[in-house]
Amino acid sequence: MTDEYATRQTLLHRLKNQQDDRSWEEFVHYYQRYIYAIISNMQLSHHDCEDLVQAVLLKAWKNLPKFQYDPGKGKFRGWITVVTKNTVKDWLAKHSRRRRMIEEGKDITDYDVPGELPELEAIAEKEWENYLTRLAWENVETNLAPKVRSAFLMLWEGKGIKEIAEELDIAENTVYQYKGRVQKLLYKEVVRLEYDLG
Q1: 65 vs 12, 49, 70, CA distance in Å?
Q2: How confident is the model at residue 86 (pLDDT cuts 50, 70, 90)?
Q3: In the CATH hierarchy, which fold is given to the domain comprising 143-198?
Q4: Domain limits of the chain?
Q5: Average pLDDT, stretch 143-152?
Q6: What angle do CA 189, 14, 76 make, to 5 degrees?
Q7: Confidence band (pLDDT; 50, 70, 90) for 69?
Q8: Among 32, 40, 83, 168, which residue has the fewest nearby CB atoms (within 10 Å)?
């Protein structure tokens, strides 16, 4: 975590200048994986997911200069979710038309289109929680001592306290202390990220 890390509102303000490459790279860094996570739940190929992520990012880039953030109307990620949903719906409609043309015997390469669009809001909420947890871990883990990090990762993998204590040559009580310390750090980081990115 650095002092350069901008809050959501500051970043959104800087993105009004489409020539600000650094701000755009920061935006992509924080939102690209989240957008991909939502889309990948729709049983599309990796290639299609990547294409759709780029389409969502392009729409965001075009619309962010005129976007007015109002916390009273909802969270910023709600806007990103709507842009993602509309992009996927447009893509599915386009490929459904292509499929109908194929069925009618027109000369177009066959394309497998998934069925119904799943409930995107539920997917987005679940993926947001997963995304924030992963991002919080990435931000926190570099500041942990090696044994603290190892103990927590082993707990995450489902190993028992006794097994971890023996493997790391530490007291069982120390494993509990490490667990509590990391959980506290993760919680604070998730809350910060939710405020800054949510």
Answers
A1: 8, 25, 14
A2: confident
A3: Arc Repressor Mutant, subunit A (1.10.10)
A4: 1-118, 143-198
A5: 92
A6: 50
A7: confident
A8: 32
Architecture of domain 1-118: Orthogonal Bundle (1.10)
Check residue 107 and give its pLDDT.
46
The dihedrals phi and psi of 175, each to the nearest 5 degrees, come to -60, -45
Q: What pLDDT is stored for residue 160 in this prediction?
A: 92
CA 24 to mean position of chain CA atoms: 16
The DSSP code sequence of 85-122 is: HHHHHHHHHHHHHHHHHHHTT-S-------SSPP-HHH
- Give the span between the Cα atoms of 190 and 30, in whole angstroms: 13
CA distances for 110 relative to 98, 100, 155, angstroms: 8, 10, 47
